[in-house]
Write a structure and sequence with these properties.
This protein has 178 residues and is α+β, with helices and mostly antiparallel strands. It is 24% helix and 16% strand. The chain has five helices and eight strands. It is elongated.
Length: 178
């Protein structure tokens, strides 16, 4: 296991000297638990997924930890407000070990729905999309705990499941439906 990266002390934009969980003072913020890079997430996204007792209060920016082995979902640069799996009311795909595992939050499509579509005869990504409705919901900022489009999670999953069964993938087919 890699030793945790010690936090650097950097001036925040408001002029305070605050202990941040940074790799350096370049602005890259690391999860206080696993030290992996965090992705900025809007407070509205955190509020939609956090239990009421954990709603994001204050002015701090929140980050999303994408490490599947880390229990932290959201954290602040100061490390004062880490929100763990138990603090969140939404199942987070890559942190879940059991079914159902969400793939498309807007359309409420799970990994199991995709597998059922393929086992039911879907031979390519377009057919999976037509059967399940996956993609194109347009509300990812609110419905996906990462606050981003789910296609980067479901596209590789669909490709893998199709290939496991000797069927075509998504080569050349855009996954984002507008």
């Amino acid at each position: 296991m890699v030793a945790p990266i010690p936090p650097a002390v950097c001036d925040d934009p408001r002029g305070h000297n605050v202990k941040y969980f940074l790799r350096d003072c370049s602005g890259m913020v690391n999860c206080p638990k696993c030290t992996k890079d965090g992705l900025v997430v809007e407070k509205i996204t955190v509020a939609n997924h956090a239990k009421e007792s954990c709603w994001p209060l204050g002015d701090e920016t929140y980050y999303h930890c994408e490490n599947p082995d880390c229990e932290v979902i959201y954290f602040t640069a100061s490390g004062s407000r880490p929100l763990k799996i138990s603090d969140i009311k939404t199942r987070v795909t890559f942190k879940e070990r059991t079914s159902p595992r969400p793939l498309c939050y807007c359309k409420q499509v799970t990994e199991e729905d995709v597998i059922n579509a393929i086992e039911g005869g879907a031979a390519n990504v377009d057919e999976v999309r037509n059967i399940t409705g996956i993609g194109g919901g347009g509300h990812c900022k609110f419905t996906n705990p990462a606050g981003r489009c789910c296609s980067r999670n479901y596209k590789p999953f669909i490709d893998l499941e199709l290939k496991k069964r000797g069927k075509g993938g998504s080569d050349g087919i855009p996954m984002i439906v507008k």
